[in-house]
Each structure stands twice: as structure tokens, then as C-alpha cells.
Amino acid sequence: MTMILPALTEATSPLFRPIKYSLFPPLGLATLAGYLDPDDEVTLYDEHVERIDPAALDTPDLLVVQPYITSARRSYEIADHFRGRGVHVAMGGLHVTSLPEEAAAHADTIFTGPGEDTWPLFLKDFRDGAPARRYDSTRRTLAGLPPVRRDLIKRDLYLVPNSIVVSRGCPHHCDFCYKDAFFEGGRSFYTQAVDDALAEIDRLPGRHLYFLDDHLLGNRRFAEALFDGMRGMGRLWQAAGTVNSVLGPGLLERAVEAGLRSLFVGFETVNDANLAERRKNQNIGTDYAAAVRRLHEAGVMVNASFVFGLDQDGPDVFDRTVDWAVEQGIETATFHIMTPYPSTGLWQQLESEGRIMHRDWDLYDTRHVVYRPKGMTPRQLEDGYWRAYRDFYRWSSIWRGSAAQPGRQERLRHLAYAGGWKKFEPAWDLLIRSRRVVRALPMLERTLAAFGGRE
Predict the structure, then answer these.
(1) Residue of 364, 433, 325, 345 lying closest to 21 (CA atoms)
(2) DSSP bridge partners of 210
(3) In angstroms, rounded to a whole number, what is the distance separating the alpha carbons of residues 68 and 109?
(4) Does the domain formed by 2-136 have CATH 3.40.50.280?
(5) Tens of pLDDT, residues 113-137
(6) Residue-range domain boundaries for the chain
(7) How is domain 159-451 classified at the CATH fold level?
(8) In the chain, what is the straight-line distance between the N-terminal and C-terminal CA atoms, in Å?
(9) How confident is the model over 140-156, as pLDDT tens digits?
(10) Mean of the per-residue pLDDT values for the chain?
(11) pLDDT confidence band for 423 (50 / 70 / 90)
(12) How far apart are CA 269 and CA 266, in angstroms?
């Protein structure tokens, strides 16, 4: 069996690729590989870190491809090539779930939704010589999930090889969220058993972890038990959470005691009117500045996410957002142009209003405008997006943001992370391509420990 994660369009440059595409290994495919029999031969390729020539690969009995929206074209090219060689091609993931008929034209079998229930069924059918054309997920559970096949992952090609996922989905239902549609037809948020999650953590070498869960703090009971179990492990880790989970009593402190050092937070917009319109209900009525202060006082860095181009946004939204983020001392920020992913509520609204400009999936990358905005022109939106990145990561902004930190240690940490993330992005890419990034990881862990606020 061959498994391939095709490259997103921005990751295909022979000279440079955005570092975010070399951050984490493809856990989805490595998780599916855990269901294989011990004598099954399997090879996993991630085109974000190693470009492949399909014609040069051996002919497997089964090819598994996981497309994202901006890798759909490349995914179909790979799938069509192997089908032409008589290989059975199976395809699943976000894009397949949102546009199953499109994907089915390039695959022998497609999967919609998560695969923990359907993948084992397919493997049995395939071995019996009678695989179905389509498998739809309906039973949502992580009970009995086998260990991730980390032996298939080339650790030295990733900046953060110790990534982990211990839950699926999110308890919230923002109408622009691609993954919300992915979990339709069953539970939209569920977790591993705490003991199973702790066992997976214990398998990982080194100290640093990155939880890729959409909302690690989404189930308070699970999160508390997980953090209690992690206390004393000596781990340092990053994760994602919401504003209201940060402001809630007690949970953040437990996370910090277990090793939390950085949290990705979806602030999304500084315009309150956008929140209800886009069903970002968990942010309504919350104090963003208080959430940032609470994180900083606990010694936790903030990676803030913002979306531009919502219907209540005007041309002033870019400067307002950057100024607010810098004034709060936010260490790193990611900006996005609002993108109507197929099958989401946002897509349905904009399509009904005739505002979808095209269906060139290569450009549905949150860096290009693919719909007609209400409060500005497409050019204003795209230019403002790039300006926001430039302005936030200017050295003058980084220095100003560091001044907002409560102490000298925090200011040094801010300079190291805010500067190191974007200013030295080409250097990180070079380290990864030369397979020397593993040598840099101990230094990163020592830096995180030194500036993390607590041990």
C-alpha cells in the first residue's frame, strides 16, 4: 500500500515554501496505517517535505490519497496516474467530504467524514475483493484507536515532529469552518480515553509536543483529567483553545502546570457585529484583552488568528486589527482572507447571493479573494491582508509588542518568538530541507523552557 499527502499549491516551490507546510507530519494517514495488519507493506509520502514523481514509484495494490482543497488538482493528477496503471485508489478527507461527486470521478473508493469507523470496514471489503464505491462515517468514537504508525514518519523533515491529536472536531459551529461540515451526520466533537491519550504522549521522544486538536480545551472534564495526568511528565507543549475557555476559572492554570507554553486562539475579528453573523457565538461578549492578559500572566504565549473580509469589515479593519494585536503584546499572529469552503454555511450564503467569483480550488488558500466582499473591493481586501502581515511583523511592531509584556523575561521571549517566526522563515526552510532541523530542536526546547515562565 502507498499513502500520499499531496502538496498544497503554496508548498511546491523548488526554492522556498511557507514554513507552516513543513511543521507537522501527516498524522491522518499515519493513524489509518495503524489499522493495517503487521505483515502489510505500506509507504507514506508527504509532498510538503519530499516532492514525488508518481511515474517513478512502484505499483501498489492500493493507493490512499488525502486531498485538501488547494491540493485537489495535484491529488487528482496522482490518483488518475495510478488508476491508469490499474491501482485501486481510495480517497478521503475534508475536500472529498465537501465535494464527493467531484472526488469520485478520480477514485475507486471515497470516504466522507472521519474514517475510524469506515476505514476498517473498507480494509475487510478490499481484502475480500469487494470494496464499495463510497463509505460514509456515522459512528463517532476513538475507542480502540490503534497507535499512530510513527515509524512511517520521516521525523527529520519536520520542525515539530512530535505532533499529536487526542480528539476530533470542535463543540462550536462557526459557519465558515471547513471542519464543521466534515463532522455532519454524527457527533461533531469527541475525545480519546484519557489513558489512551497519555499512552500516546508517553510514546513521543523529547520534551516538546504540539497538540493539533481544533480545541483541546473543548471538553473540560477530559482536559482536566488529561492535564492532571500530564503533570510531572516534564513536557512543554502548544495547543489551540477559545477565548471563553481561557477566561473560564481553573482550566488554564491546570494546563500551565502540565506544560502549556503557547496557545493558538481564534479571535477572528475585532468587529463584534461579525461574530453573530458568522455564528462565532463563543466569542460574543468576551473580553479579548482580558484573555490575552490572563495568558501572559500565566506565562503562555499567544498565537492569534484573524479573518479579514467578513461582511461588516471595511478598509480600516487591517490597521485596527494589527494595532490591537501589537498593543496587546501578542507574540505571533496568523491572518486569513475569509474563504467560503464548499458545503459550509458561508459557502451556501455567498453562492445564493451570487458572490462566489470562481471555483479554482488552487486559490482557496485564505491568501486570495475568491468572492465579492461587501465592505471593500477584492483588491483592497487582498492588499490589506498582505499589509497586515508586513505591519505586524515589522521590527518596530515587534519591539512595541515586547514593551507590552509584564517583565524582562517575557519581553525577551516575545522578541525571540515574534522575530524568529517570520523574520527567519527562510532559514527554517533551509534547515528542514537539509535535514538538520532535528539538531535545532533541543535548542528550541531549551529556549521554550527558559522563557516559558514556569518549569
Answers:
(1) 433
(2) 163, 238
(3) 17
(4) yes
(5) 999 999 999 999 999 999 999 999 9
(6) 2-136, 159-451
(7) TIM Barrel (3.20.20)
(8) 44
(9) 889 889 999 999 998 88
(10) 87
(11) confident
(12) 9
Helices (H), 278-353: 288-297, 317-327, 345-352
User: What is the model's pTM?
Assistant: 0.89
Cα–Cα distance measured from residue 390 to residue 398, given in angstroms and rounded to the nearest whole number = 11
> pLDDT above 70 covers what percent of the chain?
85
Q: Would 2-136 and 159-451 be classified into the same CATH topology? A: no
Q: For residue 65, what are the β-bridge partners?
A: 4, 91
Grid cell 498524522 — which residue? 27
Residues in the chain: 455
Cell, residue 202: 508517553
Cell of 370: 475568491
CA atoms within 13 A on the CB side of 146: 18
The DSSP H or E segment spanning 453 is none
Would you report the helix, strand and coil content of the chain in percent, each value rounded to 5?
A: 45, 15, 40
Torsions phi, psi of 445, nearest 5?
Answer: -65, -40
Contacting residues for 7 by C-beta, under 8 A, at least 6 apart: 21, 47, 48, 51, 71, 74
Nearest to 381 by CA among 275, 305, 307, 271: 307
Cell of 256: 500551565
Question: Are 288 and 262 contacting, i.e. CB atoms less than 8 angstroms apart?
Answer: no
**Using one digit for the tens of pLDDT, what is the confidence trace for 249-264?**
899 999 999 999 999 9
Q: How far apart are CA 272 and CA 264, in angstroms?
A: 20
State the DSSP code for 7: P
How far apart are the C-alpha atoms of 414 and 451, rounded to whole Å?
9
- With a cut of 80, say whether residue 307 has pLDDT above it: yes
What is the C-alpha separation between 70 and 390, in angstroms, rounded? Answer: 24
